Amino acid sequence: MIIVTGAAGFIASCLISKLNSDGFNDIIAVDKFNVKEKDRNLEGKKLKEKIDRDFFFDWFRENADKVEFVFHLGARTDTAEFDYELLTRLNFEYSKQIWKICAQNQIPLVYASSAATYGAGENGYKDSHNVLNDLEPLNPYGVSKNEFDKWAIVQDEKPFFWAGLKFFNVYGPNEYHKGRMASVVLHAYKQIQETSAMKLFRSHNVNYKDGEQLRDFVYVKDVVEVCTFLMHHRRDSAIYNLGTGKARTFFDLVSATFKALGKKKDISFIDTPEDIRDKYQYFTEADMNKLIEIGYSRPFTSLEEGVEDYVRNYLIENKTL
């Protein structure tokens, strides 16, 4: 059996689709399952069982000997969330319990970290364990993820294989429920369909022109390829970046969305909301050498190819992965 937490969410539901396509159908899906609009992310997927996250640990302890792998992708992912108690409980303490059961039973584990741990990038974007204590995340979500990374690397008792994945800006199918936290591709698609135009956040940093803020945008299909690579690899335990290694501008991303829709570009700018303005990352770019050095050789989807596939085959068709 393979456990996937956050199963009805964006990345986890895409991972389940990939696992099913590879012949893995004994999937234990863990989530709250209380957001009705997310139900379609699991429609048609082959699952062995669905378990409410609040009752998961009792089940896990009783069935640990039957579990062959754990993907812990469930988390509170809202970068505008300032409830520290909630983030500590869901992103730190919950992850610790999963780690401990995996370690006690020597079950391999891949868990979701985040590029939000890098803050404004003062220490670069290299996935070295040596910099974890120096990182300064810009929001409580990033803090919660970095705290778990720091906790994990100093544990004496570890799963025989484990990997933490620092997801950069992931976009793609199955994110329709994420609201404000959905990718700019989805927001652009909706705005362009409604108004034939797109408003981007204005830059409030003199080093970046409007629309030229840079992010490492990675297609969710590439993310799940890395996840399944690690499931089979089961060596070289560490924290890894998961981006493309190539930063692109928001202007590039929105231009690709217009092109995928066959529409003329019409881009204007609005002020970045004040509640996130001083927590805004103007540049992210994953150093991908560590993952490549352990043997991951599949090329990453280009921004233009990823946006075209997402828009034409999922958004326009109103399909999930």
Give an overview of the whole structure.
A seven-stranded parallel beta sheet has the order 3-2-1-4-5-6-11, with helices on both faces. A two-stranded parallel sheet has the order 7-10. The longest helix has 22 residues, at 84-105. With 321 residues, it is α/β, with parallel strands linked by helices. It is built from ten helices and 13 strands.
How does the SSE layout of this entry go?
Blueprint: E1 2-5, H1 10-21, E2 27-31, E3 49-52, H2 56-63, E4 69-72, H3 84-105, E5 109-114, H4 140-153, E6 162-167, E7 169-171, H5 184-195, E8 198-201, E9 214-215, E10 217-219, H6 220-233, E11 238-242, E12 248-249, H7 250-261, E13 267-270, H8 274-277, H9 289-293, H10 303-315
Parallel strand pairs: 1-2, 1-4, 2-3, 4-5, 5-6, 6-11, 7-10, 8-13
Antiparallel strand pairs: 9-12
Helix pairs in contact: 1-6, 3-4, 5-7, 7-10
Defining traits:
two-stranded parallel sheet; alpha/beta; globular; 7-stranded parallel β-sheet; 321 residues
Can you describe this structure in just a few lines?
By secondary structure, the protein is of the alpha/beta class.
